[in-house]
Backbone:
């Protein structure tokens, strides 16, 4: 009984940890993506305006 319960808790812990890490990665990546996308979009808009 005890061994099966401990195995279940370990599985849940690893699953939660993996999910938490994914959330942290997204939180860290989102600002970086925004900082990269904003200048790129500005450059593209400038090119469009110059083309017109």
Residues:
């Amino acid at each position: 009984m005890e061994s099966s319960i401990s195995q279940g808790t370990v599985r849940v812990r690893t699953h939660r940890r993996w999910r938490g890490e994914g959330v942290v990665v997204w939180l860290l990546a989102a600002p970086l993506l925004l900082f990269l996308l904003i200048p790129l979009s500005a450059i593209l808009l400038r090119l469009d305006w110059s083309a017109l």
Observations:
- The first helix runs from residue 2 to 51.
- Residues 15 and 50 are 51 Å apart (CA to CA).
